[in-house]
Structure formats: C-alpha cells, structure tokens
Write a structure and sequence with these properties.
- By secondary structure, the chain is α+β, with helices and mostly antiparallel strands.
- The chain has 3 domains: about 10-25 and about 40-365, Alkaline Phosphatase, subunit A; about 380-445, Arylsulfatase, C-terminal domain, CATH 3.30.1120; about 450-600, Galactose-binding domain-like (Jelly Rolls, Sandwich).
- About 20% of the residues lie in helices and about 25% in strands.
- The chain is built from 11 helices and 27 strands.
- It has helices spanning about 10-30, 65-75, 85-95, 120-125, 185-200, 220-225, 245-270, 305-310, 335-345, 360-365, 420-440; strands at about 40-45, 75-80, 130-135, 155-160, 170-175, 175-180, 205-215, 280-285, 310, 315, 325-330, 380, 390, 395-400, 405, 450-455, 460, 465-470, 475, 485, 495-500, 505-515, 520-525, 530-535, 565-575, 575-585, 595-600.
- Strands 1, 2, 3, 4, 5, 6, 7, 8, 9, 10 and 11 form an 11-stranded mixed beta sheet that branches.
- Strand 12 (about 380) and strand 13 form a beta hairpin.
- The protein starts with 7 loop residues before the first helix and ends with a strand.
C-alpha cells in the first residue's frame, strides 16, 4: 500500500519518548524497594452496542458468554452513562470532562475534534512510563496534532473517522501510514492489540481497543451471521413497529463476534500471565443504533433519554475488585480516567479541571451501596449547541421537556413525577441550566476551526472535511466515509479551510478515480495565490464495494472504492489560515474525477 507519509520526525519523537518513559519507570522502580509494578490497563469500547445487547443484561436472543463472564468476575456498574453519540463519549473518556467543554460538537466535518489544550488518558499514562496503544476507531481528530499518535498513544492501528464503509480488508491507518487491513476489521484490530500487549508485557501498558461494531454498515463474517439469518427475534424493542428485524439480526451477530474477540483478548492476558496484573474495562459509547431490545429504556442512539445514554460497564481487577460486585451508584465515562489513574497510582495532571471523579472506593468495597459517594449529577446534552439537556441524579432523570422520572422503577420514563416532586424537578432543572450556562461559547455555534496542515510530514484532507461547490456531490449523505463525485463543470470546486503550520513546499497528492472516457481532465490545486495542476493521464475506474457484504440495507452511508494516488505537483504554501481549492479547468469528458483525499506532503 502507498503511504500517507514516512512520518519520520514524529515517529522518531514517539520512539524517543517511549525509550525515555521506559528509563524513567525503570529508574523509579530501582529507587523504591521492593519494586511494585503498576497494573496494566485494558479498555474495550464497543460502538453502538446498547445496554440490552448482552446476555448478562437479559437478552435471550444472543449468546455473549465471554463478556457475561467478565461481568461476573468483576464489578458491574448498574447505572453507567455515556453520551448519545460516538465522538462525545470518547472525549469524555479521554479527558474526564463533559464533552461540551472539550471542543467536540458532533461526529464529522471537524466537529469531532478534541481541543489541543485537553489532556488525554494517553498523555497521562504515557507520562507515567506506560506503553500506550490504541486499536480501532479514534473519532476525535485526523490531522496531526489531533491524530492519536499526537495525543499520547505511541501505537495506533485503526481509522480516525467516525464511520468506515467496509469491514473486510479495509484501508486503515497505522501510525499515520495508509495500510490495508487483513480480514474482518474487528478480528484484525484484536490481533494488533494482542501483539501490542505481548510486545510490552515486561512493562506496564495502556491498551485501548475501541471496536467499531455493531455500528453500521451491518457486516459480519458468515460464521457469526448464519445463526441469525431468518431467525425469529423473541425480544423486541419498546417500539416494535419501528424495529428493522434484518438490522437487529445483523447487530446481534456483530455483538457475538465482539464477544468472541473480547474472549481472545482475555485469553491472551492469561497466556501472557498478566490477568491478575491488569485492570479490564468494558463499556459502549451510546445506546443501540436501531430499535431493538434494550431493557425497556426509553430512547436509542442519538437521544438523551435513558436508552440513548445508558451503557453496560464492567470492571475486572482480580484480587482488588470482588467478583460479582454490583455498584448501584450513578457513574459515567467522565469517571473512568480518574478511576484508572487511581488504580494505577498515576499522577493525574490535567490542564483543565475534571468533571469526573474516581470510583475506585466503590469497586473495592464489599458493600458499595454503603460506601460514601455523594451526589454525582450527570448531564446529557445534544451536540452542536442545540440547547437541549437531561440531568441524571441517583434517583431521577429530568428529561429535555422538564419531565421527572424515577428510573429504577420506571426505565421507560412513562410516569412524570413533576407534580409529585416539584422541588426536585426545579432543583435538577436549575442545575442543568447552570451547567449549560457554564459551557464555552464555542459549543453554541458551528465549529469554524480550520484543518491543520504541516504539523507532520504528511497531512490527509479527506472528502469528509471538505466542502462541495457547484455540481459536485458527496457519494452519500453522511460525510464520514464519503467521497466527492459528480464533478461536471469547470467552475465547480472543492474546498478545505486549513491552517498551515510551516511555510514551505508541499507535494499535493490526489486520491482519485476516473472513468476511461474522462481521462485528460486537468485538476488544479491552489492556496493563497499559488497553484499546481496536472492532467489525468491514467484511468482508474474501480467498482463501489460493500453492498455484497451488507446484512441489512445501509441508509445514508457511502460504499467505498479503491482510490489511486496522483501527484499534482509541489505547491508553495505560506504559513497561516486560508482556503485550499481543487478545480478542474479542463473537463473533456462528462466529468472530471472522484476525490477521496488530498494529501499534502511536506
């Protein structure tokens, strides 16, 4: 596979920091006798798996023996909360802060980026001498310094977007280089995570495995899907008329594949002799991505009701966390960073005040219900500054309409208790309003940050982050894994708002497709008065792939193609902000090219 970049200088820095971290940890260990190794940390994050997508949570249509066993061998957080969609939850986990404070506003077109002044869990553990690796869906920024390798993770294998268009032998990112994955993506991510743990078994490690299923497209190997093909689904959604059974069957098959891969990770810890020395966390990033069984909770992915933000969460640490422990206190993704840092004895030096707090005391108590925790209000907000909020206390949820519900006995939020407990409703409403007022002004307007160029040797600018003008269209409604097509007129253009860190010469590489009859089109790239252009001399007309592997019809999401790189020449760029433009001044056929990326190589 061709590369985005050799990433020489940033790669050198990562290796240097890694070597220094090992030295610091070893030196500190020698200075303190006897030497006690900090625990490893393995965090597994599912994508769009609802609370009800597990056997341990009462779903009888699915078999998830390994995740169920993980729950039984450690602690279950009975009331654990995340965000209604993907990128915000990741921001909260990374920082210990409510996502609305971190720069994250949405899931695509740059709105998913985590502000550069935020401290991540990768930063915290890397500074403490841990080896750090992430394997899967990043979804908090693509271009350096938003890239995972710049946010505390020395090793990265996966993709930075929020959605990927094909799960078999996909195009992936390995430490900034474009590579080709092998086999089914979840199985492949597991292989790389296991290799990382084996490579770093002699030192403490943080291994973060953000799987990207059962997020669509609904693709899964046949050996997992065969069980569900045409099968009757006995447990249904709270809105059965809205349930797409083909989608449900595929989602359950994908969850069984997840379970198998979680088992592989846990077995690998056993084989390495590290199970007793590793804190394992399992959770999901939001509610289910379709109407299916979810414990009777109201709402699904995208909602700030119980069903949209309640997640399974299991934590295992043999000898420290009692097996079968059940924690009734309300907690959330914002609490994971302080809790894991607490278990590891890692200094928690964040540039910003945390919203989360450690619940280690609850996990190590024989009776969590009797352990002091205090009130811990959790705020759920709709992204993009839409103004709606929901507040969860230990007993109640105040919903976006101001209704008050006793969640333990009314998870479907059917009985509004405002008239019965008006003071409590007013208290939670005031708390929510004060929280919303405390958010930065940037959360309430559309993200206008430019895309960063020149902070590394190579910068990819995917179609996801660009803007189409004229007749140019996206290949699908959702920007995440889309490409630009239908480029039919010379006056059309594609633009990216960028900020160039370092003035100099950049090679412009276009990843394109072109039908044979359109060969000869001229493509021009310009930035602030400088331009380069080249004629397309070679056809590249691959088919769109993905439909053959879909188990249910995709809606609003693009299929993928094999795009080919073509150099447009070397562009002189001055430092600062400006608009990068792609134009096709000559279109001899019916269209110019289709565009997946522009890559600027310093």
């Amino acid at each position: 596979m061709r590369c985005f970049s050799k990433m020489n200088f940033p790669r050198f820095l990562r290796l240097l920091v890694s070597a220094m971290s090992v030295f610091v940890w070893c030196a500190g260990a020698r200075a303190e006798r006897p030497m006690v190794r900090p625990p490893n940390v393995l965090v597994i994050l599912a994508d769009d798996q609802g609370w009800g997508d597990l056997g341990v949570n009462g779903n009888t249509d699915i078999a998830t023996p390994r995740i169920d066993a993980l729950a039984r061998s450690g602690a279950t957080l009975e009331h654990f909360y995340v965000c209604p969609v993907c990128a915000p939850t990741r921001a909260e986990f990374f920082t210990g802060r409510f996502y609305a404070r971190t720069g994250v506003q949405g899931v695509s077109t740059g709105q998913e980026r985590l502000n550069l002044d935020e401290t991540t869990i990768g930063d915290v553990f890397q500074r403490a001498g841990y080896a750090t690796g992430a394997f899967g869906k990043w979804h908090n920024g693509t271009q350096w310094p938003y890239h995972p390798n710049a946010r505390g993770f020395q090793e990265f294998y996966g993709f930075c977007s929020g959605h990927w268009g094909h799960y078999f032998d996909p195009e992936l990112d390995h430490n900034g280089r474009m590579v080709r994955g092998k086999g089914f993506i979840i199985d492949d991510l597991t292989e790389h995570a296991m290799a990382f743990m084996a490579e770093n078994r002699a030192r403490p490690f943080l291994c973060y495995v953000p799987y990207n299923t059962p997020h669509s497209p609904m693709q899964v190997p046949e050996r997992f899907y065969a069980k569900f093909a045409g099968r009757e689904i006995t447990q249904r959604s709270v809105r059965p008329m809205d349930e797409d059974l083909a989608h449900t069957r595929a989602a359950l098959a994908m969850c069984e594949n997840l379970d198998w891969n979680v088992g592989r990770l846990l077995d690998h810890l056993d084989q390495l002799g590290l199970s007793n020395d590793t804190v394992v966390v399992y959770f999901s990033d939001n509610g289910p991505n379709g109407w299916r069984y979810n414990g009777g909770f109201k709402g699904r992915k995208g909602a700030i009701d119980e069903g949209g933000v309640r997640s399974p969460c299991f934590v295992r640490f043999p000898g420290k966390i009692p097996a079968g422990l059940r924690v009734p206190q309300v907690a959330g993704a914002i609490d994971l960073l302080p809790t894991l840092a607490d278990f590891a004895g890692v200094p928690l030096e964040s540039k910003k005040p945390l919203d989360g707090r450690s619940f280690r005391a609850l996990l190590t108590s024989a009776n969590p219900a009797a352990t002091p925790w205090g009130e811990h209000l959790l705020y759920s907000t709709l992204w993009g500054g839409k103004g709606a909020f929901s507040v969860r206390s230990q007993e109640h949820r105040l919903d976006a309409a101001g209704g008050l519900y006793a969640i333990d006995r009314d998870p479907g939020q059917m009985q509004n208790l405002v008239s019965e407990f008006p003071q409590e409703a007013a208290r939670l409403r005031k708390a929510g309003e004060e929280f919303m007022a405390s958010l930065p002004a940037s959360f309430k307007v559309r993200d206008a940050r430019p895309f960063t160029v020149g902070y590394a040797a190579s910068t990819p600018l995917p179609a996801r982050d660009g803007v189409a003008h004229g007749t140019v269209k996206r290949s699908a409604k959702a920007p995440n894994c889309s490409y630009f097509t239908h480029w039919t007129k010379p006056e059309d253009e594609i633009t990216w708002e960028v900020e160039v860190a370092e003035a100099g010469e950049y090679e412009v590489v276009l990843y394109y497709t072109c039908a044979p009859e359109n060969v000869g089109a001229v493509v021009e790239c310009s930035f602030e008065g400088q331009s380069v252009r080249a004629k397309v001399s070679e056809a590249n007309n691959p088919p769109a792939i993905g439909a053959a592997d879909d188990r249910s019809e995709r809606v609003g999401e693009s299929y993928v193609k094999d795009f080919k790189p073509m150099s447009l020449g070397r562009l002189q760029c001055k430092a600062g902000r400006g608009t990068l433009r792609l134009r096709a001044p000559e279109i001899p056929g019916s269209a110019a090219v289709e565009v997946r990326y522009v890559v600027l190589q310093r």
